[in-house]
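I am writing to request your help with a piece of structural work I have in hand. Here, with my thanks, is the record as I have it:
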Amino acid sequence: MAKIGMIGAGSWGTALAWLLTNNGHEVTMWSALGDEIDMLESTREHKDKLPGVKLQPEMKFTKDLPSAVKGMDLCVLAVPSIFTRKTARQMKELVADGQILVNVAKGIEEDTLLTLDQQIAQEVPQAEVAVLSGPTHAEEVGRGLPTTIVAASKKKATAEYVQEIFSSNVFRVYTSPDVLGVELGGALKNVVALAAGMADGLGYGDNTKAALITRGLAEMSRLGILMGGKAETFAGLTGMGDLIVTCASVHSRNRKAGYLMGQGKTYKEAMEEVKMVVEGVYSAKAAIALAKKYNVEMPIVEQVNKILFEDKPVKDAVLELMMRDKKSEHNELPWEA
């Protein structure tokens, strides 16, 4: 049995706390929102973000961050990506040398263009940082539906320890040394999922969705590989797998926000209606900045940014994508002489 601090009590943090408690671990959940902790402690259910998932009697809750960090075998950072750096900074003096911090959020910092694990490493340099990511909706994990995910770390022993802690008969965990690729896949797919939702909101069909997923994966892979990620990662669970589920699922907040924008709402109106953090909105600016930095063509990401921040009509963006210069799908493939 491990002692685990769950730092963040949203839908994903709650689902993972439920899973880890089922695995026999001692879990203490913390939230910066006192009312959230009061609700969880009194009702044993996150009625707002994960209704129907009853939390076990042995699970602990606290409003005191040191109680959720000090003496823990590992801590899971499950706060929204825009709060990852701030939360890690608050944890700095509480984390012991070599203590494992597992990031489960997805995003890229807009100002620095750093991935979340890089932000955590900056703020808590004495920690061993790992990442847990993949095609995993909290609503399904909390119901015990079969799910697969990837634990990534620079050190094999750290990844395998996280694998052991989280694995169960309904939660299969793979390991990977490609932390950067795993982080980029999780962040960039949210931007593509916004586009997929917009297409659904416009009433477009499966052909359109397949095109966005496939070409979106091409954009993610081009950028990620140039930055140092591995092609195998983008073809795997944290690339293709996460992209498929986020673009297609009714549980996806990014797809839902895009759907509402496809129906004519602004991104601010869409975010208010979704009532949860829409990570793709925050990652979109970072993604286009990275595309410019590495001189990578990312037309879908570019059009999403224009829709979000330049008030470009969604239909016009689709038309521009369709009418781009004619190209070969794979420039590297040779033609017969």
About this structure: The mean pLDDT is 95. Residues 3-177 form a domain with the Rossmann fold fold (CATH 3.40.50.720). The beta strands are 3-7, 26-30, 60-62, 74-77, 100-103, 128-133, 147-153, 171-176. The chain has two domains: 3-177, 187-322.
